[in-house]
Amino acid sequence: MKLYFQIQGMGYEISSSIDPNSRVGEIEVNGVRYLASFLQRGPKEYVIELNGSRFRAFVERFPDKAMVLVNGYPYEVESKAPSSKAPKYSPQVGYKEELTPLMPSLVVKILKKEGDLVKGGEPLIVVSAMKMEYTLKAPYGGRVKKVNTRVGAKVNPGDILVEIERTEEGGWKES
Amino acid sequence: MFKRILIANRGEIAVRIIRTLKEMGIETVAIYSEADERSLHVFEADQAHLVGPAEPLQSYLHIPRIIEIAKRTHSEAIHPGYGFLAENPRFAKACEEEGIAFIGPHSGVIELLGDKVLSRRLAEGEGVPIIPGMLESTTDLNILRGEARKIGYPLIIKAALGGGGKGMRVVEGPDQLEEACASAIREAEMAFGDGRIYLEALLKRPRHVEFQILGDKAGNVIHLFERECSVQRRHQKILEETPSPALFPELREEMAKAAVKIARAAGYTNAGTVEFLLDSHLNFYFLEVNTRLQVEHPITEMSVGMDLVRQQVEIAWGIPLNLRQEDIRQVGHSIECRVYGEDPQKEFLPSPGPILGYREPSGPGVRVDSGIYEGYEVPIHYDPILSKLIVWAEDREAARRRMLRALQSYVVAGIPTTIPFLMDLVASMAFLRGDTHIGFLEEHFSGWNPPKRLGLMAAVAATVASLGRSDAIRPRKREGGLSPWEYLGGWEL
Question: What CATH number is given for B132-201 in this structure?
Answer without folding.
Answer: 3.30.1490.20
